[in-house]
């Protein structure tokens, strides 16, 4: 299977502009969720990682998974992350 190229991008809807930084994901972005209260987003990569990013910080935090992750969610207060892993 040939990997697809992808990127996680965040856009400001009030200005129509892409925010920086963006995060290249060589095997694509599979699932995305957001927690507006904490200005936080999370996404699943094609490399079996869940990445969580507080958009006021420069870099996301990675949570490696042993198997493919099919869904991800953040709690309303942004203190908990749920990931559905396919075993």
Task: Please characterize this protein's 3D structure.
By secondary structure, the protein is an all-beta fold. The chain has strands at 6-12, 17-25, 29-35, 40-45, 49-54, 61-64, 69-74, 81-85. The protein has a four-stranded antiparallel β-sheet with strand order 3-4-5-6, with no helix packed on it. A two-stranded antiparallel ribbon has the order 1-2. It has a two-stranded antiparallel ribbon with strand order 7-8. Strand 3 and strand 4 form a beta hairpin. It starts with 5 loop residues before the first strand and ends with a strand. The model has no long low-confidence stretch (mean pLDDT 92).
Features:
87 residues, mainly beta, two-stranded antiparallel ribbon, 8 strands, globular
Layout of strands and helices, then pairs:
Layout: E1 6-12, E2 17-25, E3 29-35, E4 40-45, E5 49-54, E6 61-64, E7 69-74, E8 81-85
Antiparallel strand pairs: 1-2, 3-4, 4-5, 5-6, 7-8
Summarize the structure.
The chain is mainly β. Helix content is 0%, strand content 57%.
User: What does the radius of gyration come to?
Assistant: 13 Å
Largest sheet: 4 strands, antiparallel
Number of strands: 8
* Gap between N and C termini: 21 Å
Backbone shape = globular
Average pLDDT metric: 92
Low-confidence stretches: none
Number of helices: 0
Structural class: mainly beta
Order of helices and strands: EEEEEEEE
Helical content class: under 10%
Beta-strand percentage? over 45%
Strand order of the largest sheet: 3-4-5-6
